Amino acid sequence: MKLKSLSLLLMLTLSSTSALAVTCPPNAGELPSWANSDRRSAITEFVTEITNPNSPNFVATKDRIAVFDNDGTLWSEQPMYYQLVFTLEQIKGLASKHPEWKTQTPFKWVLEDDVESLMKADHYALLELLQATHSGLTVEAFQQIVHSWVTKSKHQRFDRSYIDMTYQPMKEMLSYLKANGFTNYIVSGGGSDFMRAWTEQAYGIPAENVIGSSFGYDVVKVGADTVIVKNGELVSNNDKQEKVANIQRVIGKKPILAVGNSDGDHAMLQWSTSQNNPSMAMIVHHTDSDREWQYDRDSSIGRLDKALNESKQKDNWHLIDMKNDWCTVYGASSTSK
């Protein structure tokens, strides 16, 4: 299917911002975009308990670590991961400098809008596209390109910039946790340098608190200056068990709160709640086809199956029902800088 045809089909078959799926009374104070549900109560009760010095479940500020997946947890991820959308658009923008791409796969598929062939290809094809668009640049130059794209390019279904495809309830949760002494981290399969270009603006999470997939770096001398240039060597594919390993490697502490949306986060949720200290896991369940998308077990993107089963078996695992727990999905449009 052609990319333009796919986009048109999605726009025709999926409504955009229709009437709210749930009516929410205004909430005073924290988490105003959350309905008065068990999930909202789970967040506030957990935070109240672990921040109370007189509670047996008190956790010192230095140990209040919270980790969040990004794709499908803090911003949307349909109909394809947004870093992939960025990559495809970059390939088209660079095509004039690479006439050989017209006959070389996977570049040929991108230039011909052959999404079907691209989606059927193995992960090496995607890696080749990422290497072509994510390497050979200084980190600063790459992040300037990403920041411009994420703040100016528009999602075709919602006509919102990608930085505005972030979830308002989750941003409120991040702010609420920070106000109560938590240190928030993003632990995502997305690229570290891709996310670091905009996560502080979107979520208030600084670059040093972003853990993602990554390519290697070359330290290069340019005249009197030393610069870091991204190369095409895949160093870490930050997914599943690799998320746990990278949390230990970078943070060095087990989180007491972990939030994800798919089986790619399953190991992180299990590990974070496997401890004697108070802990909690939450899963964003995509149940709202009107205001966002509805998917779980059968989705090729953000598949939620095993973690969905486990969430129904553990008291300290909570399934966030997007349709019924969120009064709004996306907040007001931001002002691009």
Secondary-structure map with pairings?
Blueprint: H1 3-13, H2 38-51, E1 65-68, H3 82-94, H4 107-111, H5 115-120, H6 123-134, H7 139-152, H8 168-179, E2 183-191, H9 192-196, H10 199-203, E3 210-222, E4 225-236, H11 241-250, E5 257-260, H12 266-272, E6 280-287, E7 294-295, H13 306-311, E8 317-321, H14 322-325
Parallel strand pairs: 1-2, 1-5, 2-3, 5-6, 6-8
Antiparallel strand pairs: 3-4, 6-7
Helix pairs in contact: 3-6
What does this structure look like?
Residues 1-21 form the signal peptide. InterPro entries: HAD-like_SerB, HAD-like_sf, HAD_sf. Keywords: Signal. The protein is an alpha/beta fold. It has a domain at 30-78 and 161-325: HAD superfamily/HAD-like (Rossmann fold), CATH 3.40.50. Helices cover 37% and strands 17% of the residues. It has 14 helices and 8 strands. Strands 1, 2, 3, 4, 5, 6, 7 and 8 form an 8-stranded mixed beta sheet that branches. Strand 5, helix 12 and strand 6 form a beta-alpha-beta unit. Helix 3 crosses helix 6 (123-134). The protein is globular and about 65 Å long. Residues 1-20 have low confidence and may be disordered.
